[in-house]
Design goal:
11 helices; two-stranded antiparallel sheet; D-Maltodextrin-Binding Protein, domain 2; five-stranded mixed β-sheet; alpha/beta; Arc Repressor Mutant, subunit A; 3 domains
């Protein structure tokens, strides 16, 4: 079909009528007459050579052909609207979708978002948080920032920085702790990575106690529970500097263990757009500015 001859008004009328299953309500939405909507839909049906609606005494019902067409048309209009939104204010803004593990999002990225927006006003940054389990392709993400060893199938992973884990707890709990062995009598909060406490106790030279504390899929949530006095979390202090400065959390022992690092990841099959490159370079510059010289 010639793009210049696409029946856009008829497609819009069909999409609205399909949502409302009523020509009158579709007409109200589109600010046209009911007869105009009915005419546009009939015109589209003649062009396609098939009926899209069953006309009922009280409204409409989609035919099988209509059902098949609805998601295609709706997605097309949504994509057009999203693209036009990028031109808001008379300047094109390139969308960048980044999935971020929640702890990094709240502990590192959020305080710096204003700086990124000022440095790159033409980038429409869209952030979604996760618990480190992310589907780059399924969620249509340009990047994902996650914690681990950097080995994710089909993924290019660029290291950002290490985030060693250490016990964190409320001040009242810290007051009871004289040495690492005292943790054996405390409730130890766990992440879904089961080996982390074993790694820390091994470095401390203390037998690993039986772990019975609740399990969390987010270090941020686990640290919130620790601040409320519900146990001791094993989490990266570098992601909770504000809580530590406010003495909502205390790091009772200096010992920290490296159980992974944060990575900037993308699909190997995904070429880097200009917005992606700018975001990657901004991350690198922010991290370099905060990293002490050797």
């Amino acid at each position: 079909m010639d793009r210049a001859q696409l029946p856009l008004n008829a497609l819009r009328a069909f999409e609205a009528a399909a949502r409302h299953l009523n020509f009158t309500r579709a007409a109200i939405e589109l600010h046209v007459s009911q007869g105009a909507v009915s005419h546009q839909v009939a015109q589209l049906e003649r062009r396609l050579g098939t009926r899209l609606f069953h006309r009922l005494p009280r409204g409409l019902a989609l035919t099988d052909e209509g059902h098949a067409l609805v998601p295609v048309i709706a997605e097309a209009f949504d994509r057009v609207a999203a693209t036009l939104d990028q031109y808001a204010g008379g300047r094109f803004r390139e969308a960048l979708k980044v999935g971020v593990v929640g702890t990094f999002a709240t502990g590192w990225l959020l305080p710096r978002l204003d700086a990124f927006a000022r440095a790159h006003p033409a980038i429409d940054l869209r952030i979604s948080t996760n618990n480190n389990r992310v589907d780059l392709a399924g969620e249509a993400l340009d990047y994902a920032i996650r914690f681990g060893d950097g080995a994710w199938h089909g993924t290019h992973a660029e290291p950002l920085f290490a985030a060693p884990l250490a016990p964190l707890c409320a001040p009242a709990v810290a007051a009871r702790l004289r040495g690492p062995a005292d943790l054996m009598s405390e409730r130890l909060l766990r992440s879904y990575r089961a080996d982390e406490w074993a790694l820390w106790f091994g470095a401390a030279g203390v037998p690993v106690p039986v772990l019975r504390g609740p399990m969390f899929d987010s270090s941020a949530l686990m640290a919130t529970a620790a601040a409320a006095g519900q146990g001791v979390a094993l989490a990266p202090p570098s992601m909770f500097t504000r809580e530590l400065a406010a003495e909502l959390l205390v790091q009772p022992f200096a010992l920290a263990v490296d159980a992974g690092r944060y990575w900037l990841t993308r699909l190997m099959s995904r070429p880097e757009s200009d917005a992606m490159l700018r975001f990657r370079d901004w991350l690198a510059s922010e991290i370099a500015a905060e990293t002490p010289a050797p």
